[in-house]
């Protein structure tokens, strides 16, 4: 349906399919001065926020896996809390603080707020990955003479790679699709694809909205592919055969 709306120049009731096709809506979207900046901003913010999320979630999940004094129920509640609270309340209150800190309307402020919403999802995946991994492999690496960095880079990361790719891909898509945080904290200075897409969809302008939807899907998949290549190595993740 999105593909049909994107090329439908004329589509009226009771026609089952468009009666006229064309690239008019693609030309309108491309003529928007915010077209390329929105793609760049969405990709840049999502990339930075994704790797920052991993940098926060990985050591946190490792600590939560090894510790014995915090109950699992409490850990799950703390992780889920940002997803339970209303997003609009978090965004508006954060915007008030960011105005005082003078980081509203900056890339830094947008990235920080995106990370807040991304960390719970990444932690849910990585926490389970760390639980399955355990500590035996790291202990074996230390016994063979590896230091902490070598054990982490050559043992932990390769074994966690499927979980890392899943967490990073989900985090990237979450950041790429954020509307409210970017709208409030960006202060109209930072335009992303959702900021262009949502108004067209809400106003019933399905033609241009569908074009932006197709571009959104394509560019987000490209971003996920790049992340998979970065984390998965040159050949990505290969299925193991036993």
Automatic annotation (TrEMBL):
Transmembrane segments: 38-57, 77-94, 106-127, 179-200, 212-232
Keyword Membrane set for record: yes
Bilayer topology: Multi-pass membrane protein
Keyword terms of this UniProt record: Cell inner membrane, Cell membrane, Membrane, Transmembrane, Transmembrane helix, Transport
Cellular compartment(s): Cell inner membrane; Cell membrane
Species of origin: Limosilactobacillus antri DSM 16041
Keyword Transcription attached: no
InterPro entries in the cross-refs: MetI-like, MetI-like_sf
Residue intervals of the ABC transmembrane type-1 domain: 39-227
Any Pfam family hit: BPD_transp_1
Family statement drawn from the similarity comment of this UniProt entry: Belongs to the binding-protein-dependent transport system permease family.
Top-rank taxon: Bacteria
Predominant location category: membrane
SUPFAM superfamilies associated with the record: MetI-like
Coiled-coil residue windows: none
Name of protein: ABC superfamily ATP binding cassette transporter, permease protein
């Amino acid at each position: 349906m999105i593909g049909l709306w994107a090329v439908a120049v004329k589509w009226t009731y009771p026609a089952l399919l468009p009666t006229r096709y064309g690239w008019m809506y693609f030309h309108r979207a491309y003529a928007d001065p915010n077209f390329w900046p929105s793609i760049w901003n969405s990709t840049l913010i999502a990339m930075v926020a994704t790797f920052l999320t991993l940098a926060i979630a990985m050591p946190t999940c490792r600590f939560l896996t090894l510790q014995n004094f915090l109950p699992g129920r409490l850990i799950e509640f703390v992780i889920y809390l940002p997803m339970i609270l209303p997003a609009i309340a978090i965004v508006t209150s954060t915007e008030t603080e960011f105005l005082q800190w003078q980081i509203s309307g900056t890339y830094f402020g947008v990235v920080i707020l995106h990370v807040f919403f991304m960390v719970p999802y990444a932690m849910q995946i990585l926490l389970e990955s760390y639980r399955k991994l355990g500590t035996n492999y790291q202990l074996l690496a230390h016994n063979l003479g590896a230091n902490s960095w070598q054990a982490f880079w050559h043992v932990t990361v390769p074994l966690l790679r499927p979980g890392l790719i899943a967490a990073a891909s989900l985090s990237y898509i979450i950041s790429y699709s954020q509307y409210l945080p970017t709208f409030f904290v960006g202060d109209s200075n930072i335009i992303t694809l959702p900021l262009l897409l949502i108004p067209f969809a809400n106003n019933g302008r399905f033609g241009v909205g569908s074009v932006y939807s197709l571009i959104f899907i394509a560019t987000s998949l490209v971003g996920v592919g790049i992340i998979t290549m970065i984390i998965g190595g040159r050949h990505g993740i290969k299925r193991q055969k036993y």
